[in-house]
Design goal:
The complex is a heterodimer. By secondary structure, chain A is α+β, with helices and mostly antiparallel strands. Chain A has 4 helices and 9 strands. Classes of the chains: A alpha+beta, B alpha+beta.
Chain lengths: 127, 221
């Protein structure tokens, strides 16, 4: 399993990659896509909607089971990966690049995000 | 033997947790669904897992995956929009429903493993009645000669699931022909009765209760 060190991780198996202008890209971890199995459908938050850390902001369906997409930080959605509506399997095949989920504008860019680094996350999932 | 029997009966043993089986008989779909949501919302880390075995009056239910779903071609059966995975299905008398209220993180199962385990459980159960059932790749559920006999749909919230699996035992399967079950056009459904098995929901209910409460059940941990 791979967990890039350039990003942060939330305990509900989401990653967050800090970008310029207080923006951040969000997706699901390798562990998440592996435990869910083949993702067949995804319901994403709309552009301009606010998401709150630790709160569900969408859903992912795999193997007839619907799970929550939990926000790893507070912010406003500024871009949604539209490719996922027709190619949800990108989240399985390439969870850190083509399978990114949303881009947000962070609500509190100056404060500590309270997320894990790759090593802490690996411990969290028992690797 | 005596020691292991005691161990089996000791529900408070710190390393052994029983799944609670509730035989509910006929229940109202919406009431039971809301009860599952409340149970899952209120459960805490050491809440025992539960399995609710029930049967519903005729109802079509539409899952969260509504892309490309055609609505039922008959209007005499109510349609309920629910929050499970999967598309559209039918429930009615003579179909046994197994609702799974499990902390899947605690039993260390992934969603895929839970689905696989439930399919395996029903395939073994059907084998005891002489029915050779199988999986079909990329189409969760249990099939006999490419006809579907058991359907799945789950919702996972904070690592705990609800909804479950239904098995067609001895029912009127005509209402399935007014939908494309699970979104697959032309998918035919079957049931135990049509495969020559004389069994009632009551027989199955006891049989399943015994399987899930058995100490070799993966749900008892």
């Amino acid at each position: 399993m791979s967990y890039p060190t350039d990003r942060l991780y939330h305990s509900d198996h989401m990653w967050l990659l800090l970008e310029s202008n207080d923006e951040a890209l969000i997706g699901i971890s390798f562990f998440a896509q592996d435990t869910l199995g083949d993702i067949v459908e995804i319901n994403l938050p709309n552009k301009t909607s606010m998401i709150s850390k630790g709160v569900s902001c969408g859903s992912i369906e795999s193997r007839k089971a619907v799970s929550d997409f939990v926000a790893p930080a507070n912010g406003v959605v500024i871009e949604v990966n539209e490719n996922l509506s027709t190619e949800p399997y990108l989240m399985n095949d390439d969870p850190y690049k083509k399978g990114w989920v949303v881009r947000i504008k962070l609500a509190n860019p100056q404060s500590d995000l309270g997320l894990m680094d790759a090593d802490q996350y690996k411990k969290h999932i028992g690797e | 033997m005596q020691i292991s029997d005691n161990f089996f009966l000791d529900t408070n043993h710190q390393e052994y947790r029983h799944v609670v089986i509730r035989q509910l008989g006929f229940t109202d779909y919406i009431e039971t669904w809301h009860a599952m949501q409340i149970f899952t919302h209120n459960r805490v880390e050491d809440t025992p897992d539960e399995i609710w075995i029930t049967e519903h009056q005729p109802v079509y239910t539409l899952g969260l995956n509504r892309k490309g779903v055609s609505l039922p071609r008959r209007l005499d059966i109510p349609l309920i929009e629910t929050d499970r995975g999967g598309k559209i299905t039918y429930h009615g008398p003579g179909q046994i429903i197994i609702y799974l209220l499990l902390n899947i993180n605690r039993i260390r199962m992934t969603v895929s493993q839970l689905v696989f385990y439930m399919e395996s459980t029903l395939i073994s159960l059907l084998a005891t009645y002489g029915i050779l059932a199988q999986r079909i790749k990329d189409a969760p559920g249990v099939y006999v000669n490419n006809k579907k006999i058991a359907s799945l749909g789950l919702r996972v919230k904070n690592g705990c699931c609800y909804h479950g699996i239904s098995l067609n035992v001895d029912m009127d399967i005509a209402p399935f022909s007014a939908i494309n079950p699970c979104g697959y056009e032309g998918l035919e459904m079957t049931q135990m009765r049509d495969l020559g098995v004389v069994a009632s929901v009551s027989d199955l209910r006891l049989h399943l209760g015994a399987i899930f409460s058995g100490r070799d059940s993966m749900l008892n941990n």
